[in-house]
Amino acid sequence: MELLANLGLGLETAITPVNLFYCFAGVFLGTFVGVIPGVGPLAAISMLFPITFYLEPTAALIMLAGIYYGTTYGGSTASILLNIPGATSAAVTCLDGYPMAQKGRAGVALFMTTIASFVGGSFGIIVLSLFSPIIAEYALTFGPAEYFALMVLGLVAASTIANSSPAKGMSMIVLGMLIATVGTDSQSGIGRFTFGSMSLLEGFGISAMAMGLFGIGEILSSVGTARNPNIDTTSAKMKNMLPTRADWMQSWKPAIRGSSIGAFFGALPGTGPSIAAFMAYAVEKRVSKTPERFGTGAIEGLVAPETANNAADQTAFIPTLTLGIPGSATMALMLGALMVHGIQPGPTLIMQEPALFWGLVMSFWIGNLILLVLNLPLIGLWVRLLLVPYHYLYPSIVVFICIGAYSVRANTADVFMVLGFGLLGYLMRLGNLPAAPLLLGFVLGPLVEIQFRRSMVLARGDFLSVIDRPIAGTVLAMAALMLVWTVFASLRRRRQNKRANKPMLLDE
Amino acid sequence: MLKRDYRNIIAGAGLSVFGLAAAAFALSKYSMGTISRMGPGMMPVSLGLILAFFGLAIFVPALSRRGPSIDPKFRSLTALSISIICFALMIDTLGLVPAVFSAAVIATLAEKLISLKSAVILGAALSLVTWAIFILGLGLPIAAFDWRF
Predict the structure, then answer these.
(1) pTM attached to this predicted model
(2) Are the beta carbons of A418 and B11 separated by less than 8 Å?
């Protein structure tokens, strides 16, 4: 059993008291920041990443994994209690989670969410450990042309599938890639768009960008808007949290279906946790004998999307770790953080550094486990945190973002960059432009450029020879089809709207 | 509602102008090279042109439909910008505690909900917490106070 040996190796690397402490700290901080309404997982992750820059790689990765799960879980908590989804994948959780909370079953909903996260996460990790070595071995034969094609497919899928306006998604990807060209060109050594600034020679840092776009940008759009948290704290007491026997009986089948759907959609480019959660919810409603209960607090409608998005969160790591190609903005952020620690994910990572790879996989699982152990007793604390007025929270977040940005290079230019990206993020919100594709384009941009240049050197400038390669050609054709199809679909939608004499629906 | 969808008109036009400007700048400054040996200018020029194209694709359809009004929150924007700029200017010259304190107090001005007294208490509490986490706990090489008088 090679798999068991690998997992054993991973456990050995991951389980040391120090690492467990950092995992615990990561889960705790992640949930803490993720719970704050209006702070989505992307903002929370980007705020907490700089803390890990001071740790040695293994501990840092384990803490990162903890932060990653904690923020997702924290987002679900806010969705259930306040009906404010922190992320699109948590929006599905609101559908039945919030009605449950209104019926006084908030405790049960939070309890089942924790269990569902663990079940979905564990299933996703099994899929991840089974498929990663196979895909990595296959990917060893890939040349620059294949990588270029796969990245183009990933970018096209990310900007078209999940966005209501493909033109906006694509434009943000391209803008992200353009922003990524700032700094020293890796091939010629020439500084591009630096305008004589020393700080710009290294380009923009991913943490400054993410903290600005998602942290400051989110604060700018949520300050000054009315909020009144109205939470029934008694339902989150331990004795009101335990699900009944009927709850368990109704939940296990949706959990299995949710895990499978999540694991499948998580690994595909462009789909990820949000689509997985929506699909799982739709499937559950379809197979249910009582579909009319959905939306009024049906436990299946909570368990299925929660297992699905957690399984998808795991399998999304398959392309990220085996190919080095992130499928979503969150994965792009994780990839960026791995690269800060000197780890370049790709097919050779599994072969050359098995301890690191399997240690990372097992730390995901430990992160899930700690989440389970930590959150069941701490739900009361998170509920109380939700009651802290926002006007005390947001100045604190601003301060932590500033210190986080400054501490990466001890350079005040990074703090100004955070402000710049924050203003950009706010302007983008005003124009209904999505920020997640921008980050994805920013991370993938330099990789696309390098692989494209290399493949053109190898092909002596003949682009047709790239299309001739079987894998690269097929993947590029898929990307082209996807583009054509979305353009066609949006034109048809517009015509239908016009015929119905309705104004265009707003994005989001 | 406005007569035209100005959000998308401005967003699309802004993206197009930005793309064209970046492409023009890169074209004039960096060498394009050939397809088989691409120079540093090739990528920015093509990305700028593609961005200009997508900007147009957002701009043109927005001309012929109505849209919601735009109301930027100038008070919050100004308060948070000054707060962050203050932090950036003070962290190297005065140290962590003054930077955190002033950034927090100024940031509270973005909403009118908080009295000056609670703002000062919040600033002091945050100074203490950040000092404990980042200097005491993580050992960041930042001075708590850096008076150079």
Answers:
(1) 0.84
(2) no
